[in-house]
Structures are given as structure tokens and as C-alpha cells.
Specification:
With 251 residues, the chain is an alpha/beta fold. It contains twelve helices and eight strands. It has one domain (5-250): TIM Barrel. Helices cover 41% and strands 16% of the residues. The protein is globular. 44% of the residues are buried. The chain binds 2-phosphoglycolic acid (PGA). Residues 9, 167, 172-173, 210-213, 231-235 line the site of 2-phosphoglycolic acid. 2-phosphoglycolic acid is lined by residues 9, 167, 172-173, 210-213, 231-235.
């Protein structure tokens, strides 16, 4: 049985104070929520205050990116061990905004994945096709290259720990959610790629859907048998809407 994961990606929003206030408001809304992993991923600058706001709560902390090296002369970068020291348990890697605006390649995502696992962080690896790729009918090869690029060569015990997020680029921040069928098909395809790498891992790896997830559509998406959770952007910034998404079966 795969434990569902609902993760909020705050992107470049919320100051340290706003972030702490958000999770302080979120805590009581989710205190009774069992049977899932709940994660918030604030900007680096808010990790420390959000960590204090999460003390005693069942919500865990994640980051949105990291550098692959353990330390070094990399101005402006943050290492996995630094995130761990701030209380992070997860890190988002290879988000389409990083691939698009910061030239992240599959090779970089692979290196970061290994560094995250070595630092005992759970990577949430994002994959997904652009609109043009979808219209050209190459969704599956694009996604397969991204998944294989990140995971090939990982030892089985590490492969089983990763989380993959299927985020069609055209559905991110656009209000245009993939249909529940498209989301399920995308996640099922990713599971088949994982199965080809390691049969045993395929039934253990959590695969999330991301892209315009809201309280109104989360339950239908979660009905997909291969969808093990959601990576939520815009709707994760307010305690009320994020809590409604986490409590998806009550919608
Ligand atoms: P969105 O973002 O929910 O605002 O579409 C999702 C993401 O980028 O992870």
C-alpha cells in the first residue's frame, strides 16, 4: 500500500513571517488527518521560520531545489546537507520552471537525485511534456527520457524511496488541469517505465500528479489507481485551500 503524498510548492511566494503564519494556521486544520504524508516547500528564505511553525504538527518540510555538490564555491547555491540541517525531509527536483528558465538538464536532475538521497532527503522528481510535445504526440518518449534520465543506475533500495511528480507543463499555473484520465494515464505510464528499471520498485514508488490541482478537482484526480498524491502550486499558498486538498476525500 502506497501512502499518499500531498505536497505544496510555494514557488517564489511568501516572506518568512507569512510562511510561518500560514503553517501555524494550517496545523489545526490538519491535526486529525491520518494516512498521508503532508509536505510544504517554501522558498529557502522561509525554511527556518516555517520549521518553527511546524513544531508539533504532522506537516513536513521540503525545499524546491538544491545543488548537487555537498559544499563548495557555488555562489548563490544551497547544498542538501544545509537543507537537512534546517529540518527538510524532501526536496523538489527538476521542476519544469527550473528546466525552462534555469536550463536544468536530465543529467543535472540525476546528479541532484543522487545527492539528495545521499543526504537522506526524499527527492520529488518532476517530469512532464510541454504543449507542443503533447500536440506532436511525443508525450510518452519525452516523459520516459526524463524518468530514465533521473533514475537509471540508482540502487534498488534508493529507487524505491523517490517520489515522481507528473506535471504536464501546459497544466501548470494555467488553470487548465489534465483530465483525470490523462493524469491517470500519465502516472500509469511512468509506473511502467519504473517497472522496466526495477520490477520491485514499481509498486512502491509514489507518483503524484501536478498542474492546477484545486479543492474542486483533487478527489477525482486521486481516484486514479496510479495517482498517489498531488504536487500543488497556487492552491497551496493559503491554509484553507491547501487543507481542503489534503483532506481530499471530504470534498
Ligand atoms: P499549479 O503549480 O498548481 O499552480 O499549477 C503546480 C506546480 O508547479 O508544481
Amino acid at each position: 500500500m502506497r501512502v499518499p503524498v500531498i505536497a505544496g510548492n510555494w514557488k517564489m511566494y511568501l516572506t518568512p513571517e507569512e510562511g510561518r503564519d500560514m503553517v501555524v494556521a494550517l496545523g489545526p486544520l490538519l491535526a486529525a488527518c491520518r494516512g498521508r504524508e503532508i509536505v510544504v516547500c517554501p522558498p529557502f528564505t522561509a525554511l527556518a521560520t516555517v520549521a518553527t511553525g511546524l513544531v508539533g504538527s504532522n506537516v513536513r518540510l521540503g525545499a524546491q531545489n538544491m545543488h548537487a555538490a555537498p559544499e563548495g564555491a557555488f555562489t548563490g547555491e544551497i547544498a542538501a546537507g544545509m537543507l537537512k540541517a534546517l529540518g527538510c525531509a524532501y526536496v523538489i527536483l527538476g521542476h519544469s520552471e527550473r528546466r525552462q528558465h534555469f536550463c536544468e538538464t536530465d543529467a543535472m536532475v540525476a546528479e541532484k537525485t543522487r545527492a539528495a538521497l545521499a543526504a537522506d532527503l526524499i527527492p520529488i522528481i518532476c517530469v512532464g511534456e510541454t504543449l507542443i510535445q503533447r500536440e506532436n504526440g511525443i508525450t510518452q518518449p519525452v516523459v520516459e527520457i526524463q524518468v530514465r534520465g533521473a533514475l537509471t543506475g540508482l540502487p534498488p533500495e534508493q529507487l524505491r524511496r523517490v517520489i515522481i511528480a507528473y506535471e504536464p507543463v501546459w497544466a501548470i499555473g494555467t488553470g487548465r488541469t489534465a483530465s483525470a484520465t490523462d493524469a491517470q494515464n500519465g502516472c500509469a505510464f511512468i509506473r511502467s517505465v519504473v517497472r522496466a528499471l526495477d520490477t520491485g520498485a514499481a509498486d512502491l514508488v509514489r507518483i503524484l500528479y501536478g498542474g492546477s490541482v484545486k479543492p474542486e478537482n483533487v478527489q477525482e484526480l486521486m481516484n486514479g489507481t496510479d495517482i498517489d498524491g498531488a504536487l500543488v502550486g497556487g492552491a497551496s499558498l493559503k491554509a484553507d485551500s491547501f487543507a481542503r486538498i489534503v483532506r481530499y476525500e471530504e470534498q
